[in-house]
Amino acid sequence: SLKMASDSPESLMTLCTDYCLRNLEGTLCYLLDNETLRLHPDIFLPSEICDKLVNEYVELVKTDSIFEPHESFFTLFSDPRSTRLARIHLREQIVQDQDLEAIRKQDLVELYLTNCEKLTAKSLQTLVSFSHTLISLSLFGCCNIFYEEENPGGCEDDCLVNPTRQVLVKDFTFEGFSRLRFLNLGRLIEGVNVETLLRPLASLAALDLSGIQLNDVGFLTQWKDSLVSLVLYNMDLSEEHIQVIAQLRKLRHLDISRDHLSSYYKFKLTRRVLNLFVENLVNLTSLDISGHTMLENCTIPSMEEKMGQTSIEPAKSSIAPFRGLKRPLQFLGLFETSLCRLMHIPAYKVSGDKNEEQVLNAIEAYTEHRPEITSRAINLLFDIARIERCSQLLRALQLVITALKCHKDDKNIQVTGSAALFYLTNSEYRMEQSVKLRRQVIQVVLNGMESYQEVTVQRNCCLTLCNFSIPEELEFQYRRVNELLLNILNQSRQDESIQRIAVHLCNALVCQVDNDHKEAVGKMGFVMTMLKLIQKKLADKTCDQVMEFSWSALWNITDETPDNCEMFLNYSGMKLFLECLKEFPEKQELHRNMLGLLGNVAEVKELRPQLMTSQFISVFSNLLESKADGIEVSYNACGVLSHIMFDGPEAWGICEPHREEVVKRMWAAIQSWDINSRRNINYRSFEPILRLLPQGISPVSQHWATWALYNLVSVYPDKYCPLLIKEGGIPLLKDMIKMASARQETKEMAR
After folding, report:
1. How far is the C-alpha of 164 from the C-alpha of 150, rounded, in Å?
2. Which residues form the Protein zer-1 homolog-like C-terminal domain (predicted)?
């Protein structure tokens, strides 16, 4: 089912929502006074659509860097006569007091505010406007919502230093919230009296008090007939707590788990406590005791355990107290406890660290509210993906993507998540992944690169991108990925390994793409960035992969792109070319890449005069004799000269070397090449070669062009015969055979 889910296209509803949010002005809204968004007066939207608009908006602001948030977005939903809201989920810095204030007339049924640190006590007052309809409320991690700003009365000097003091609101309670059943107060600020706050609530069904320290929880018994879910994650427990919990007989879900790294806990779990839960909480279907130390041995001796297959039957349970269960639990949280490694665990789903299934269950259960646990679970998944083989690949990928999206600013999750993605997207898993899923991976990788300048995250993200077919799979984010890579390469201090991977990616991105892409990337400063890298390497006198890739990238980006060729010349590219030749006379790859690039420059008629100097022509002529990289360097040098010769004798504005002498050397070079040479070059078009055929001004250029075509179509017929035909090469060759000025051997080859 997961495979199907990840493959199916987005629903029409999702596509329309996304489109409207990205084009609010063109669809639902108009701009008032050039700044405020207003809903068109004839628009009426039901809650099914409005909820989705708000929730997707929050998601987009959080996970899509290109998406611009709107100051006045929430005011679009201020009038329930035209827009209805019922269930909304808001997160983090995206939401402020005035946003909630804007929608106060709505009859909200469900309001989740997660880590909304900008909300203050003003929003507590706004909550009161929803009190008559609200059934579910989460204030998880809203650490300032119980603070108001108090202006000191007598304003003395203090005023300037601290004009507003944060004061804890003591008098707010849930009085009047008559329908409230589900409440999450996780990570509530210290000093708020939880008991007083909750007392007015008649019949709570679910309560989350994660991370709150309460010595006395006796007040919970007022809901012993209604409470079905209780979460006390990271609360330091005592015998009193346990006695109270045992009285909440309607509980179906109990979570007393903890983060064993966060602080010292006096409480230890015992066999007696687990027995108490099993005996008293007869409706329990889900229990989480992750992170707890067991004070005594609760396990059944291993002799008994060895019998037969693993079983989830309570009667066979390896954990003694759970033999008293009437039926297996739906969920049992045992992450970072010794119990998860036992053989018979009476639960359908177990979170733990024993195997892939348990680890994935942990990531799934804890991602939303417990990043500190999730990052350790993802770390375990990383080891599984790296050392063994993942058997639930799609589930693993989707869980990691969700965690990375949800915790964009959590360094641990970004580091472990990006590392896990590298192993989960490599080639052995390729077949199982849909285009949609792989695009989601690319999106979160780019998000990570954007928000984290941290070396490990950057390296992991770059390495993960190497698992994709470039440029094809990155085409849909082409601009963005190039900007990010150039950004990495332009940093003053650079990590060698990241630099190498980033240059490799840049090179791959401009290889075999359309000219408009190359022009766009050129305008982003690509040429300049590569030349700066080359300059640095020259100064260090090192010719490594970065140096070679940088020249190769310049060769690719100048292919049939005159603007980029011009930039290369304007930014002293020729000076660097000469210096590299001199500094690294033996580096064949380097010579090939540099001359390939100069071949591109020489194809641009307007730029050729800049190559017409004694120094450059002598260098190109001498390279005709080069044996570097087979015939490639000699071939490319001859190509550069062929284009220059094509401009005729009157363009030859230098005394030394003589034009005839260079022509002679060109003939000699071409005659020395093996016509069956296998090639280290890739032509997307023959146009620059074909233009040298119908002319009589430079027979040697004509011969070079004919040799090039002959070699390519005979060694690689499947690739290049169709290209030659498509680009009209056949009639050009036929016409040339009839030309008086063409040399006999050229005609032979053309025939």
Report:
1. 6
2. 404-750
* Whether the predicted pLDDT of 274 surpasses 80: yes
pLDDT band at 496 (very low <50, low <70, confident <90, very high): confident
This prediction has a pTM of: 0.87
**pLDDT for 433:** 83
Average pLDDT, the chain: 91
State the helix-helix crossing angle for 659-672 and 614-623, rounded to 10 degrees.
20
To the nearest 10 degrees (0 to 180), the angle between helices 699-715 and 729-737 is 130
d(CA 671, CA 668): 5
Separation between Cα atoms, residue 300 and residue 484, nearest integer Å:
56
Contact (Cβ atoms closer than 8 angstroms) between residue 617 and residue 571: no
Nearest to 260 by CA among 226, 294, 217: 294
SS3 134: coil
What is the Cα–Cα distance from 174 to 124, expressed in whole angstroms? 10
CA 526 centroid distance within chain: 22
Whether a cis peptide bond, with omega within 30° of 0, leads into 657 is yes
Please compute Rg for the chain using Cα positions: 35
Q: Give residues with Cβ within 8 angstroms of 262, minimum separation 6.
A: 234, 372
44-77 confidence digits (pLDDT tens): 999 999 999 999 999 999 888 788 899 899 999 9
What's the CA gap between 498 and 457, in Å, rounded?
Answer: 10
SS3 278: helix
Q: Which residue from 134, 119, 272, 276 is spatially nearest to 204, judged by alpha carbons?
A: 134
- Whether 244 and 220 have beta carbons less than 8 Å apart is answered as yes
Percent of the chain with pLDDT over 90: 78
Bridge partners (DSSP) listed for residue 230: 207, 254
For residue 287, the surrounding DSSP H or E stretch is strand 286-288
| 347 phi/psi in degrees, rounded to 5 | -155, 145
**Banded pLDDT at 265 (limits 50, 70, 90):** confident
Percent of residues in the chain assigned helix, strand, coil, to nearest 5:
50, 10, 40
What confidence tens digit (pLDDT) does each residue in 401-421 have?
Answer: 999 999 988 999 999 999 999
Q: Which residues contact 103 (CB under 8 A, 6 or more apart)?
A: 74, 77, 78, 85
Both structure tokens of 600 = 């591109």
Cα–Cα distance for residue pair 751/748, rounded to 1 Å: 5
Reported for 514-519, long-range contacts at CB under 8 A and 24+ positions apart, including other chains, are: 515/560, 515/561, 517/471, 517/478, 518/556, 518/557, 518/559, 518/561, 518/564, 519/561, 519/563, 519/564
> Does the pLDDT at position 163 exceed 70?
no
How far does the chain reach from its first CA to its final CA, in angstroms?
61
- Give me the sign of the Cα torsion angle 169, 172, 173, 179: negative
pLDDT at position 155, please?
A: 52
- The residue assigned the tokens 């590392």 is 419
- DSSP codes, 361-404: HHHHHHTTT-HHHHHHHHHHHHHHHHHS--SSHHHHHHHHHHHH
**What average pLDDT does range 289-295 have in this prediction?**
89
Identify the DSSP state of 269: B
Three state DSSP letters for 516-548:
HHHHHHHHCCHHHHHHHHHHHHHHCCCCCHHHH
pLDDT at 302: 63
For residue 159, the model assigns a pLDDT of: 47
